[in-house]
């Protein structure tokens, strides 16, 4: 049976791919690849961390592979694989809408399946309501198309995902490991929480059933709740919309009643740094707030030309001109933006300065991480949860042939003292992880630990 499995999967893939045209010429495909390669070489701020020999060799190989792609979908997949080798969460290739609309992640007709990475295992954490008994929450997918799940991820998923951190890479790989075109099939084996191993064939198709289990609660831009001991819970779920600042001002009078505060950034994917900092102004006693230091690559063609003739780095000692030339030749010449702290103009009487727990996790990204940098030295604030996303910066956006989009990170951000968090994430002061049993029992251990921590702080202050 296993001997027939791979040919059958190949047949299903061919059927699924048949719906996609091959509209791009070989010239267009090479041009799109070369356009991305060129812009990376010119603009990517972390080029110094790239294995240049491998990068150039991958490009040479891709010139042939992209021309041999059977359709537009497979072409863009090749570009995504090329892009993913840069290991940056703000450098990506995006499918054109005409292809994106043909892709399914969680819908399989009769079934709707949502996966979460728990301890590097593919765990079913939500299904459509009618399938909740057949696919119990907490079940682990252990095999996909005849391959152990981890092998399936290594071969077919991980190489195509751009990420700055290993843990976000695995999160996204597991969440999207069954993604595919309409009609594409997956044969899976899964183990239920009771230890039973079952098999199921899934075929991508639109799922008509709307109800899911557990039900998805509407995520508001800002949410305020109260817990015992006058502890306020404030969820800030995005800095992409300035309306969150208006909502914050509206709840501020009530928030001033708090004796302790929880700020939840676990689902904040970022947006504008200034939007988040305006909220932090009310939560910090400081008149100056120190955010990220920023730098970008500098292009000076003549210096690069001169640098080619500097044979030994020792020749740059005491010679600023030579050092600049060599850095330019090695694509390491950087421009450091002027740095100054942000001035906090909020009156002390208007602020909420109480013991504060900030909840963070792998989805705390970009501008939300910038918020954490500003909050780094606040003595009354404690970060709890897991490492943040580990990627921020200023992407340069541009189009590729056929309507696809690409972006390349052009700005490097660090802590004020130069410590790096891109590629590592902002680390919590107290690490708390969700377990499989937490999901099954609908517990929130990060929130529970924050409440316990704040209670202990209040007792210690008495």
Short summary of the structure?
The protein is α+β, with helices and mostly antiparallel strands and 462 residues long. It has 4 domains: 2-94; 103-213, Pdz3 Domain (Roll); 222-295 and 338-390 and 425-461, 2-enoyl-CoA Hydratase, Chain A, domain 1; 299-332, no CATH class.
Task: Describe the structure in your own words.
- Helices cover 33% and strands 22% of the residues.
- With 462 residues, the protein is α+β, with helices and mostly antiparallel strands.
- Residues 1-15 have low confidence and may be disordered.
What labels describe this entry?
flat, 33% helix, six-stranded mixed β-sheet, 462 residues, Pdz3 Domain, 24 strands, alpha+beta
CATH architecture of the largest domain: Alpha-Beta Complex
In total, the number of domains comes to 4
Low-pLDDT windows of residues: 1-15
Radius of gyration: 25 Å
The largest β sheet comes out as: 6 strands, mixed
- The CATH topology name of the largest domain reads 2-enoyl-CoA Hydratase, Chain A, domain 1
Give the class from helix and strand content and strand pairing. alpha+beta
The level 1 CATH classification of the largest domain is Alpha Beta
In DSSP terms, counting alpha (H) and pi (I) runs of 4 or more, how many helices? 14
Strand order of the largest sheet: 12-13-14-19-20-24
Q: What shape does the CA trace take?
A: flat
The count of DSSP E runs of length 2 or more, i.e. the number of strands, is 24
Helix percentage range: 25-40%
Distance between the termini: 70 Å
What fraction strand?
A: 15-25%
Task: State the fourth-level CATH superfamily of the largest domain.
Answer: 2-enoyl-CoA Hydratase, Chain A, domain 1
Mean pLDDT: 93
